[in-house]
């Protein structure tokens, strides 16, 4: 038995480099192919550099920014909505037992996992009748409806792990339900919320069909810009656009991750 | 309530449209087209009519579904003023009653410059004035003159070329738009030309002729890319394979496509196009107005502007787009016509005359559906 | 606040854990609940705190517990909020009572000083030692002046002097505010020393309730007596040896405690020392007295294993 | 379920009910030939008949299942391992390790494109091999992407799935007491025993959830098959996509029938999976 | 296995927790580590177990620890595997040693019987009481016969009889297999009773190491003495009252323990009873002796608060 405290530094460094290469290489490739549209076998990098795609992006910067901010807006709103939708149900699913719970938990996953066309038409008709179609609220609602499973699962896991005793203890000390939720449970669930929120944000941010069908083009979206490019053969511009697309969630993740990690590190937790 | 704009004088329509916004829903995957709309159409419309044009990128199937739903829910007004549409999508929306019209023949530029016979049918489906033409496209094969100095120019020589160069050719899998058009061309070529099919779908004729097409396709299959085990799922994938040098041909339903790709750097400068002799399908693409368009006058003014010789000329220039005019050049005056003739399409795009020489019309939609369905059972799974 | 537990029973998964517990708890008293591990002590506290509902029986409070007269439970495993500092943990109950920041800070500081945690005010629970955590948990509960304070093993992780100080603090606060305290403990000495009454829970039944001396000296039966400390059963044979000649074997008390015996070296004595355990302020002798094992606590330091001795009851 | 529980679940049950009733309801109706935008001839079950008897339908189903299964298994295994290994790194490296999220963010279409760029015979790997002198021409490069086994799609789905699993796993590990590992080590447990009896039970919620999600998602999504899909056999999702988006409206009942079938499959799969996993875990619980 | 801790220091976030600890641990001995809360006891155990690397100094083991001679630490908060049953928790180490299912089951059953946990074999940790968890943790460690067993507060949650039994079990297994045991405990009585040697850790320094009696009766200084139990400092004034006339105030011992004093009612005595604490087998009197507070442990039951008394050292 080698002393537990001794950790193999070289193994760690090698592994870390491996992870970095593995996960960064696609981005490097995207960068290269965005400036080298005519990059071909057997060259390891583009032989000639073209700034054309970046130029195009620059020319489109105003509409791009508009679309981008609209996308960020409804994606964040979706994260908030799913969080609100999922909190009490997740606590209930984690802490109580009833017949058919597993079944219900499973069924609640389905919206995220079947093609959106499965319910898109029906929802659109329903939204048309309620006046939600072509509105920001409608887009947020439809995105929440199909991305909530990504929030629900981490939350249920988080609640299960947290157990009931913290909540009980806080209530016992006289805290109201709201204070208990806000000051005790939410901070403890932060890693789970972050995990769920990241995925929900991404799913909402990347969704194309539903945003267009329900938002009807009056709610602008960056994917409306990106997806046709990705589907076309203009790889260079598509790559450049993808990089731009990458930027927003990346900054958001880095920021939230940093904040949460600092929060827990300070508190002596192993994050 | 809204006046019936179909009966109104166009001057009044322009008047009513002044100061409004037109939301134009169109395919957004071609950056140069987007740019042309944003930097040419929109300012011109603003300047001439005080109309602000808002381009909304949206794939046709999405707005088709949206319109059909809005129709069944009776939502009026909607959000779409004008759409870029043709073929099956036009048929679907028209059949669902989701289009407004007829309006096309009312447009001054339609009356002045359009040859009605060329736009009476869209894939064999009567347009009845529910859509206004604004461009023309034609099918071409794309090759690299450096790699393939002598490209085949007929179905027969193509077959030989493929068999001589195993693994270097493929086509997108129908129902991909481009792949499907390629198969339709071969249908014409292997069964004795297009004329016989122009009167609408004839099942017995189809049953008699189709086997020859399957024979051709199955004949080349073993020599295709990946031994024909698999086909690219989209023409974009085929473009990529071609650009990376995995196959020697790409194809497009847009003659300037190769030139555009050279300009944006995807294809090398030595890329050229070729049309199959006397057998290159051409079609027209259109604009249409949804039944619940909130700004019908504005949409009509835009559709009319797009048909104007200036707009058509601008669109025709390869640095803008290179899309072929939908208007009949014979109806233009001399100087206008000269300007069209003077446009240098670029080395990769075939000239208008060459294309016109080999152009054949699209097949009625019934054949298209039959071919796409049978391609699966006769070519793919056999 | 006084309250009554009436005929309460509880079981987990069909296994009865508490059976028919009935007991009144008096305003302001310090009641210690003792019993072997797994007897159901924690369960009883949870029932009183209202965290579990009794499956049978009721618990009647003299007045409905509320924010001003709360019932507070200090958990056996503390349940400190890991994301709050020590100061915030302690101040949590005050915050819930909407105390202003300044008064809260004052009160918390005072509390921390009392529990010798001033220098840990800004530490997080993960950075504390076991005993420090326990003190934070107790401070967090005491700070809101509960009407009923329930302590689950409040001293388990404290060293002797902290234990005594904490006990003293609980005792004095409790007296001052008249808060009824129920403490579960394994430390019988502490329980004897600080409680007004003791309750002995064996196998899910409350076997005896009473002031410490009464319970210690007049246990209801041998089982209770044994639980409270080692006992030497009095058989007719040993009685003769242990009690002064002429004393009758007392009819009621059928045993004698180790500390009530005295041991003396005597080469002709009837006993023989089997084992010696040094336990600090006393020494435990295990003595073989004509075949029966007798335990004696004594200050005698000179005896050795194997030595022959005489054992006698002390005159109190 | 008590009324209280129902009330507490209501924020999800209500929207889920709307989704099912409103959304899936119309789909079911249209699959049965009613409420269609344009009337379509044929009986109510015509759509289902056409779908089930379409050439190669079952083959397509099996193939889609295979691709989904392989990519989900691969993602869960790799993602769990990578997540755990990342968590074990010293704090500074661990923090930088969030680069794993890059691939989570990349749209599926981009990932497909990147896979194509890497693995095609004229791709980056081939170029590297060429530069190393191990390859003379692209056609010597092993045929990976379009070999008929769906390897390209499996690769792409795995690229997307691994960071997803890592995300869930790391969220759970954030509240895992490292002393459990130390205890296992002290007691002499080897790598497998620690993983199986200490780590896995803790990560179980993440692994099972992500398996279900990744499996069903790759079964039904069409972004990646759009670029890396093959023709023979094709992916079920592409068949749906084509019927829905690329066919005339009279194919709508067929498209809807396929969607209904996929929905039912997803629901059945989830239920069965839950049963099977519970069974396996219970059986394995006895050490 | 014997091992040496040499000049070990450790600090958390710049705060020194252990300073220059040097101590040899002998093969097969039971060493108790006592010290106030936060003294660094847990930290020292973690260092010995190899869970932390010392920031200065080294720890030398007579032989490299391995599967057959492992070092096992039983944590203060147990760290049971929450997803394994009690039986599986206990059998975990045996499985790692590839014992067959049948022999494993036998051994585990035997262990559980020993710790009175047979009926909890299939329960999960969450369903156990505090003491039951503690016993599972100890059983899980003992079952693999560690070469070095490190126990962090092994008795904190056990009642007296379980505590004694567990101590006895550890003691006998430890003797049998010659396993070196280091136990952190707050229960001084238990530490005195069962350990071969005691180490006293105050403020991160190992202040004294020795057999219990030596440490108890010859503490190195007053601080150590105080930690081990209440002391009455001997001032010239009190010496006269407490010691028999003619005895010199001993030069070395400057204090006297409460149990070395005797108290007697005496209307003219110099002392006055201030406080009485009943602690079971003894009673603690706090006596005001000419203005100085003196603590006496006694069996005397008849005295009352306010009564005047005389206090004297007992003859041992
Ligand atoms: N959630 C539960 N599920 C099943 N059994 C339980 C549960 N909680 C407690 N028990 C059982 O109930 C009995 C009493 O538990 P309890 O925690 O009240 O004991 P305790 O007297 O506090 O013991 P200790 O002194 O060891 O803490 C024990 O046998 C325990 O195993
Ligand atoms: N992870 C940590 N970060 C910062 N400080 C710590 C950490 N762990 C322990 N400490 C501090 O180190 C000191 C010694 O802690 P340790 O746990 O060794 O005490 P202990 O002697 O075991 O006390 P107890 O008897 O209360 O368990 C304490 O003051 C504690 O606050
Ligand atoms: Mg308990
Ligand atoms: Mg400790």
TrEMBL record, chain A:
Entries under Pfam families matching the protein: BPD_transp_1
UniProt main location, coarse: membrane
Domain of life: Bacteria
PANTHER family with a match to the protein in the record: INNER MEMBRANE ABC TRANSPORTER PERMEASE PROTEIN YDCV
UniProt-listed CDD domains: TM_PBP2
Protein name: Binding-protein-dependent transport systems inner membrane component
Domain ABC transmembrane type-1, first and last residues per copy: 68-256
Taxonomic lineage of the native organism: Bacteria, Pseudomonadati, Thermodesulfobacteriota, Desulfovibrionia, Desulfovibrionales
InterPro entries in alphabetical order: MetI-like, MetI-like_sf
Residues passing through the membrane, by range: 12-35, 72-94, 106-129, 135-152, 186-205, 211-230, 242-264
One BP term from GO: transmembrane transport
Compartment annotation: Cell inner membrane; Cell membrane
PROSITE patterns: ABC_TM1 (PS50928)
UniProtKB/TrEMBL annotation, chains C, E:
Keywords: ATP-binding, Cell membrane, Ion transport, Iron, Iron transport, Membrane, Nucleotide-binding, Transport
GO molecular function: ABC-type ferric iron transporter activity; ATP binding; ATP hydrolysis activity
Membrane-spanning parts: none
Ranges for domain ABC transporter: 3-228
Single GO BP term: quaternary ammonium group transport
InterPro entries, alphabetized: AAA+_ATPase, ABC_SmlMolc_Importer, ABC_transporter-like_ATP-bd, ABC_transporter-like_CS, ABC_transpr_FbpC, Mo/tungstate-bd_C_term_dom, P-loop_NTPase, Transp-assoc_OB_typ2
Protein origin, superkingdom: Bacteria
GO cellular component, one term: ATP-binding cassette (ABC) transporter complex
Signal sequence bounds: none
Protein's UniProt name: ABC transporter related protein
TrEMBL record, chain D:
GO cellular component annotations of the record: plasma membrane
ABC transmembrane type-1 domain mapped to chain residues: 61-273
Transmembrane regions listed in the UniProt entry: 12-36, 56-84, 105-130, 150-176, 211-228, 255-277
Swiss-Prot/TrEMBL keywords: Cell inner membrane, Cell membrane, Membrane, Transmembrane, Transmembrane helix, Transport
Methyltransferase listed as a keyword: no
SUPFAM superfamilies in alphabetical order: MetI-like
One Pfam family from the record: BPD_transp_1
Stretches of the chain forming a coiled coil according to its record: none
Record-level GO BP terms: transmembrane transport
Gene3D superfamilies referenced in this protein's UniProt entry, alphabetically: MetI-like
Membrane topology recorded in Swiss-Prot or TrEMBL: Multi-pass membrane protein
Family note: Belongs to the binding-protein-dependent transport system permease family.
Annotated protein name in UniProt: Binding-protein-dependent transport systems inner membrane component
């Amino acid at each position: 038995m080698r002393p537990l405290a001794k950790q193999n530094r070289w193994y760690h460094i090698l592994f870390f480099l491996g992870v970095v290469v593995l996960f960064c290489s696609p981005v490097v490739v995207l960068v290269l192919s965005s400036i080298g549209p005519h990059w071909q076998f057997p060259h390891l990098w583009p032989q000639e550099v073209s700034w054309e795609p970046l130029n195009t992006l620059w020319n489109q910067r105003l509409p791009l920014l508009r679309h981008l901010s609209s996308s960020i807006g409804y994606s964040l709103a979706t994260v908030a909505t799913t969080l609100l939708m999922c909190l009490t149900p997740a606590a209930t699913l984690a802490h109580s037992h009833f017949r058919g719970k597993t079944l219900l938990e499973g069924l609640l996953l389905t919206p995220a996992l079947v093609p959106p066309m499965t319910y898109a038409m029906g929802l659109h008709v329903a939204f048309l009748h309620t006046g939600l179609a072509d509105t920001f609220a409608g887009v947020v609602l439809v995105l929440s409806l199909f991305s909530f499973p990504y929030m629900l699962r981490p939350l249920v896991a988080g609640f299960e792990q947290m157990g009931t005793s913290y909540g009980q203890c806080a209530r016992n000390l006289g805290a109201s339900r709201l204070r208990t939720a806000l000051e005790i449970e939410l901070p403890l669930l932060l890693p789970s919320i972050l995990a769920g929120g990241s995925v929900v944000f991404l799913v909402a941010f990347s969704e194309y069909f539903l945003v267009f069908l329900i938002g009807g083009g009056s709610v602008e979206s960056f994917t409306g810009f990106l997806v046709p490019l990705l589907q076309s053969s203009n790889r260079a511009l598509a790559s450049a656009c993808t990089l731009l697309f990458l930027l927003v969630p990346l900054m958001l993740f880095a920021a939230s991750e940093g904040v949460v990690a600092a929060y827990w590190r300070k508190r002596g937790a192993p994050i | 309530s809204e006046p019936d704009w179909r009966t109104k004088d166009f001057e009044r329509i322009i008047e009513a449209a002044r100061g409004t916004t037109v939301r134009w829903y169109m395919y957004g995957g071609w950056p140069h087209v987007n740019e042309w709309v944003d930097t040419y159409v929109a300012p011109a419309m603003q300047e001439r009519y005080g109309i602000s044009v808002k381009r909304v990128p949206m794939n046709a199937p999405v707005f088709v579904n949206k319109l059909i739903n809005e129709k069944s829910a009776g939502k009026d007004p909607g959000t779409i003023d004008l759409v870029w549409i043709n073929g099956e999508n036009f048929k679907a929306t028209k059949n669902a009653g989701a289009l407004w019209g007829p309006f096309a023949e009312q447009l001054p530029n339609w009356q002045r410059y359009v040859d009605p016979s060329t736009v009476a049918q869209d894939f064999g489906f009567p347009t009845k004035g529910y859509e206004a033409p604004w461009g023309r496209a034609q099918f071409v094969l794309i090759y690299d003159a450096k790699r393939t100095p002598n490209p085949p120019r007929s179905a027969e020589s193509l077959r030989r070329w493929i068999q001589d160069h195993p693994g270097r050719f493929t086509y997108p899998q129908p129902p991909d738009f481009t792949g499907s058009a390629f198969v339709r061309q071969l249908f014409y070529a292997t069964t004795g030309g297009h004329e016989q099919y122009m009167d609408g779908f004839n099942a017995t004729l189809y049953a008699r002729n189709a086997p020859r097409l399957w024979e051709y396709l199955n004949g080349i299959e073993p020599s295709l890319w990946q031994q024909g085990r698999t086909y690219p799922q989209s023409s974009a994938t085929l473009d990529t394979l071609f650009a990376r040098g995995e196959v020697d041909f790409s194809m497009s339903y847009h003659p300037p496509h190769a030139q555009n790709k050279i300009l944006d750097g995807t294809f090398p400068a030595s890329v050229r196009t070729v049309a199959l002799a006397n057998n290159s399908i051409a079609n027209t693409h259109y604009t249409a107005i949804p039944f619940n368009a909130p700004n019908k006058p504005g949409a009509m003014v835009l559709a009319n502007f797009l048909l104007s010789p200036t707009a058509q000329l601008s669109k025709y220039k390869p640095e803008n787009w290179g899309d072929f005019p939908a208007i009949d050049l014979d109806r233009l005056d001399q100087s206008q016509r000269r300007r069209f003739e003077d446009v240098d399409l670029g080395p990769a795009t075939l000239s208008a005359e060459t294309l016109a020489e080999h152009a054949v019309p699209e097949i009625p939609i019934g054949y298209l559906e039959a071919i796409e369905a049978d391609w699966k059972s006769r070519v793919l799974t056999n | 606040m006084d309250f009554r537990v009436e005929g309460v029973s509880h079981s987990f998964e069909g296994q009865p854990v508490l059976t028919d517990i009935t007991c009144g708890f008096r305003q302001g008293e310090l009641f210690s609940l003792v019993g072997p591990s797994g007897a159901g002590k924690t369960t009883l506290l949870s029932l009183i705190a209202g965290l579990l509902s009794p499956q049978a029986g009721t618990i009647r409070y003299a007045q409905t517990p509320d924010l001003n007269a709360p019932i507070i439970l200090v958990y056996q495993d503390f349940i400190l909020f890991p994301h709050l500092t020590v100061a915030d943990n302690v101040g949590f109950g005050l915050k819930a009572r909407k105390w202003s920041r300044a008064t809260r800070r004052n009160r918390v500081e005072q509390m921390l000083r009392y529990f010798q945690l001033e220098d840990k005010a800004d530490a997080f629970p993960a950075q504390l030692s076991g005993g420090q955590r326990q003190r934070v948990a107790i401070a967090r509960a005491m700070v809101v002046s509960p009407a009923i304070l329930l302590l689950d093993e409040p001293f388990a992780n404290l060293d002797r002097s902290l234990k005594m100080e904490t006990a003293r603090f609980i005792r004095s606060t409790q007296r001052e505010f008249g808060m009824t305290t129920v403490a579960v403990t394994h430390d019988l000495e502490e329980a004897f020393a600080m409680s007004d009454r003791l309750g002995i829970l064996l196998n899910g039944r409350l076997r005896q309730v009473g002031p410490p001396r009464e319970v210690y000296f007049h246990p209801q039966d041998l089982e209770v007596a044994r639980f409270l400390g080692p006992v030497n059963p009095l058989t007719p044979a040993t009685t003769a040896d242990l009690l002064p000649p002429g004393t009758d074997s007392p009819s009621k008390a059928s045993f004698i405690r180790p500390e009530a015996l005295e041991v003396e070296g005597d080469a002709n004595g009837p006993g023989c020392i089997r084992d010696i355990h040094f336990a600090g302020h006393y020494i435990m002798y295990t003595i073989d007295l004509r075949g029966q094992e007798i335990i004696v606590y004594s200050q005698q330091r000179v005896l050795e294993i194997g030595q022959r001795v005489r054992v006698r009851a002390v005159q109190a | 379920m008590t009324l209280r529980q129902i009330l507490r679940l209501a924020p999800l049950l209500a929207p889920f009910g709307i989704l099912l009733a409103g959304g899936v309801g119309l789909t079911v109706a249209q699959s049965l030939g009613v409420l269609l935008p344009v009337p379509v001839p044929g009986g109510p079950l015509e759509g289902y008949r056409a779908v089930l008897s379409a050439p190669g339908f079952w083959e397509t189903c099996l193939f889609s299942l295979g691709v989904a299964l392989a990519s989900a298994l691969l993602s869960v295994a790799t993602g769990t391992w990578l997540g755990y290994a990342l968590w074990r790194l010293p704090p500074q490296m661990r923090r930088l390790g969030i680069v794993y999220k890059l691939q989570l963010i990349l749209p599926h279409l981009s990932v497909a494109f990147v896979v194509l760029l890497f693995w095609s015979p004229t791709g980056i790997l081939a170029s590297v091999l060429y530069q190393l002198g191990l390859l003379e021409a692209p056609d010597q490069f092993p045929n990976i992407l379009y070999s008929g086994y769906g390897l390209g799609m499996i690769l792409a789905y795995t690229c997307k799935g691994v960071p997803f699993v890592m995300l869930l796993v790391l969220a759970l590990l954030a509240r895992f007491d490292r002393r459990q590992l130390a205890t296992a080590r002290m007691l002499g447990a080897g790598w497998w025993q620690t993983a199986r009896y200490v780590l896995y039970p803790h990560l179980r919620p993440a692994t099972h959830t992500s398996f279900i999600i990744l499996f069903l998602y790759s079964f039904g999504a069409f972004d990646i098959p759009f670029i890396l899909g093959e023709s023979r056999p094709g992916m079920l999702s592409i068949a749906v996509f084509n019927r829905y988006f690329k066919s005339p409206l009279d194919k709508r009942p067929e498209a809807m029938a396929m969607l209904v079938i996929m929905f039912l499959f997803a629901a059945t799969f989830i239920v069965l999976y839950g049963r099977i996993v519970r069974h396996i875990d219970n059986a394995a619980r006895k050490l």
